[in-house]
Specification:
252 residues; alpha/beta; Rossmann fold; 6-stranded parallel β-sheet; two-stranded antiparallel sheet
Amino acid sequence: MRAYVLAAFFFIAASVCNAADKGIVLLHGKDGTPSNVGTLADAIRKSGFIVVTPDMPFSRNRQFDKSWEDCVPEIDNAVAFLRKQGAQTIFIGGHSLGASMAIYYGTVRDVAGVLAIGPGGNSGQVGRLVMNEVERAHKLVAEGKGDNTDVFDDYNQGIRHTRRTTARIYLSYDDPEGAAVIPKNAATLKPGTPLLWVVGTKDPIYERGPSFAFEKAPPNDRNKYVVVEAGHLETPYDTEAIRQIVEWLRGF
């Protein structure tokens, strides 16, 4: 675990620019790495922001070694690092599951704004196979086995994976009644927190439209729903998406 913390620290340290007073924590998606948001991070950095891209518990390297809720202290550490670099205004953003985590973070911490690129993960409408696994995980917790490592079925953009983690951690991400549900978290963003939602036309979540979660967010003049011609994985690299994101951030 210490190796991951040190690796994340050095990655962050290499990603900062000391001249800015605005910073953003930018999160990768499920089974991703910080490099997946590297192109976007570079563009935001060039616009005058300090950017950190931590390796999260749901990364390819860490494979769900901490719960959904335990991601919050890790983001807090990244925010603290930004502040030490001189950032006074803090944003949180991410792609896919990282976008969903960014929204959740905005429900428990004060931030200047939330950037959500193709949010993915727990929509609250999981498939029957995953529901069977959710029920099994609940049973394991009830039997006192919630912290034992086991293997569970999981999905990432419709592709089945097996996930080796504990029942308690698994539930924190996949329970449709849990803390990771996207529409519920959008609705409970802290009042006054603006939301930028960026989605590609080839992203499955695009079909759900703004009413799925975006319109549930508290009203704010800076809330914005952006549609670009891209797929789920391509959106963080899309030229128009990057332009819109940088323009929105620089408007503060």
